[in-house]
Amino acid sequence: MKKSPARNMLLKKAPSKLLERINSSIDVDVRLFQEDIEASRVHCKMLIKTKIISLKDGKKIINGLQQILRDVKKDKIKLDSKFEDIHMNVEALLHSKIGPIAGKLHTGRSRNDQVVTDFKLWIKKHSQIIDDEIRKLQKALIKIAKRNTSTVMPGYTHLQIAQPVSLAHHCLAYVEMMGRNRSRISDCIKRLNESPLGAGALAGTSFPIDRKMTARLLGFSKPTINSIDSVSDRDFAVEFIFVLSLTGIHLSRLAEEIILWSSQHFNFVKLPDELSTGSSIMPQKKNPDGAELVRANASSVISNLNNILSLLKGLPLSYSKDLQDDKRLTFNTYDNVLLGLQVMAELMNKIKFNKKTMLQAVEESYATSTDLADWLVKKLHYPFREAYQITGKIVDYANSKNKSLSNMSLKELQKFDNNISNDIFRVLSPLNSMKSKNSFGGSAPEIVKKSIQYVIKKYL
Ligand code: ARG
């Protein structure tokens, strides 16, 4: 049986089965395969350039690494769980291809700087995938918005119908949230973008390495400045998980609305069949499982954030094996959020809105009461507080008569103030109410149309 190249001579006994089990991370960090080979290739180029190893040996190593990469792409690689992680596996594979020269690759580096370098490269690459999936969701939301600047729906506060808004305006709220997430991702990557390679185990190295060269070749902006911090820092993973958690929470809020809207009580949307399930016993049911699972995924992601923070709390400098868990948490968060983004984008691309029901919900509520009060202020010059009182009385009356505001007669309204004129009916219609909200960032169609142009330019 092959022995792990990292097995120390002081250790007279092979690791116990239990230690092997708890120590092994290959099932998780196999996802760093390409990054590990890339970082090793760049490290080797630097070792050649600085003459730490000969050109001949270096070329053999680079060729060997390239062969491994080709094998990986063809799915020809068999990983060995004997070698606890991806770094030991790649080293062992290299050894099997080029023999003992493989051992020269580890000159001037340690697994501690190696793992954090690979991990940062992985996050950088995958942050772009997340960014792109967020963009696709924004695109689906903007598509709905474009068609619905005049589609009236109830706007809520406290989940009570508050004021009419447009479906477009509501969707664009999510576009903004998602835009902030994209900006957070880019902030996180800016801070992450320093290369830890060359920090060694924790103290740096006595070999004349060129850290600027490896940083540049790996696409980092510069090398990290403190070798101890370099191997113990996982702030970038915390930030990445945080940004994804917040994205997950936003997805969950959207999912929650879809779940509510698809319930018979709201009946605002018709879910796509392909994203719903039936009940095994109640034939009439159409359940919003897709959205519910996105909502559930958010809780795993929040737990991962909590988990990585607790992992770091109280951990002395610099590297401790606890840090190995960072990847499990990060990958799980990434998988959950990526899936959530994809499911919600598909949902938003296929969902159908029951516009009539949404309008009816506004009409049946007293959602234009504020407009009535505002009219009393503007036309009859009441102080707002007084107008508010009068409107309250009108709403109370309308309610007792089971009437909507716009269904009241002028006579009835004049019981509350003689000077109320026919003109008031203009502001009582939901569409006009919405049109009147033309303050910057408001829900008037003319304003929302401008916002759509703005978000298309900014995000798509
Ligand atoms: N698999 C390890 C990890 O993910 C790699 C670093 C191991 N370093 C060490 N000193 N044992 O953290």
Report the count of strand segments: 6
What is the number of helical segments per DSSP (H or I, 4+ residues)? 19
Largest sheet: 2 strands, antiparallel
Radius of gyration (CA) equals 31 Å
Mean pLDDT: 95
Beta-strand content estimate: under 5%
Low-confidence stretches: none
Structural class: mainly alpha
What is the H-and-E element order? HHHHHHEEHEHEHHEHHEHHHHHHH
Main-sheet strand order equals: 1-2
Bound molecules: arginine
Structural shape: elongated
Termini, distance in Å? Answer: 54 Å
Helical residue percent?
55-70%
Structure write-up:
- Helix 3 packs across helix 6 and helix 10 (about 235-260) packs antiparallel against helix 11.
- The longest helix is centred in the N-terminal third of the chain and has 37 residues, at about 110-145.
- The chain has helices spanning about 15-25, 25-30, 35-50, 55-75, 85-100, 110-145, 165-190, 210-215, 225-230, 235-260, 290-310, 325-350, 355-365, 370-380, 385-400, 410-415, 425-430, 430-435, 445-460; strands at about 150-155, 160-165, 195, 220-225, 270, 350-355.
- The strands form three sheets. It has a two-stranded antiparallel sheet.
- With about 450 residues, it is mainly alpha-helical.
- The structure holds arginine.
- Arginine (ARG) binds near residues 29, 321 and 323.
- Arginine binds next to helix 6.
What are its keywords?
460 residues, 6 strands, two-stranded parallel ribbon, mainly alpha, 19 helices, two-stranded antiparallel ribbon, elongated, binds arginine
